[in-house]
Amino acid sequence: MGDQNRPEWTDPEKEENFTTTYMPGLKSKHDGMEQTNRKRFQKKDNAELDIQEIAAKLVGGNRIALSKAITLIESNAKDHYQKAQELLTYLLPLAVPSIRIGITGVPGAGKSTFIEAFGILLCEMGYKVAVLAVDPSSTVTGGSILGDKTRMENLARHPNAFIRPSPSGGTLGGVHRKTRETVIACEAAGYDVLLIETVGVGQSEVMVRGMVDFFMLLALTGAGDELQGMKKGIMELADAIVINKADGENVTLARKTCREYNQILHFLLPATKGWQTRAFTCSALHGTGLEALWSVIQKFKEKGEESGVFTERRHLQEKEWLYSMIREKLENAFFDHPGVKRILPSLQASVIKGDVPVSKAVDSLFQEFQQNKPEV
Description:
7-stranded parallel β-sheet; Helix Hairpins; 3 domains; alpha/beta; Single alpha-helices involved in coiled-coils or other helix-helix interfaces; extended
């Protein structure tokens, strides 16, 4: 347009006066601001991370490197799996001997308060403590919804402690399927006491028993735990039962509950050969009974190492880990098979309608799977 004082929507043949004028904009590829050679920040993808660099920093005690390693291990992305296995292969020989302690209990038993008080006690003794708090998963996002790191503020700030909340991912028993590999990473980072907290109580907690050395059940007074104890169940897996919140007016009742548990335990087979499971009282709020409990755990380890039970249990756990990984890999390969994906929806619909027996549908799926075996 020729006249810069006239808007372009006006009639050029008419004589009109305007109180404002305008200047046309400059044609440019940038926003008018002075350009700079400064590079833009881009977040580095986990797949591009240098495994050797992460491993070296992790072994040196860098908690950020440990967090990155666990994030890589927990990733479900296929391209991250090989990276994680490469990292674990490097870390496995560097893992320090540790005592792995599983902690479970009914909601409200004070697991987080207990772990924080117990963890701080051990940190002050000079131990390096890693807490793997397996939270329930959100059914919407799949993420952790309890936030143990925010509930253990004092322990999280301690230089000898590391807390890693992880979503359970709906895994039976509330144990994240990658927890075993996370244990290796923590041990390679120098943590010699591992506390693994699970989301609840039930027969499925046998999965926790299968990855720890010492299994602890936190119980309450007057919450129906005594009746649950009579049904055995979880008590058959525990190496110690801890009656928490034994403080204030609750001390007398806690001691009574402790005696009742010990009477029940007398008639049960011990969870660990050569070890008699017993009940104890403590107050995580006031820190009473925690040192005595740690002495019990140390005695358990010493006795187990002398008898060979400690090493035998570790070997059995490694064997179970091997078979569980085989089952997981086969299951993934089965459902990822193109043929299975193709016929599964129709077979599923037929089974629901009652047109095809379940066993016949399964046979058809496996026949399809075996005809064109995928690379596992």
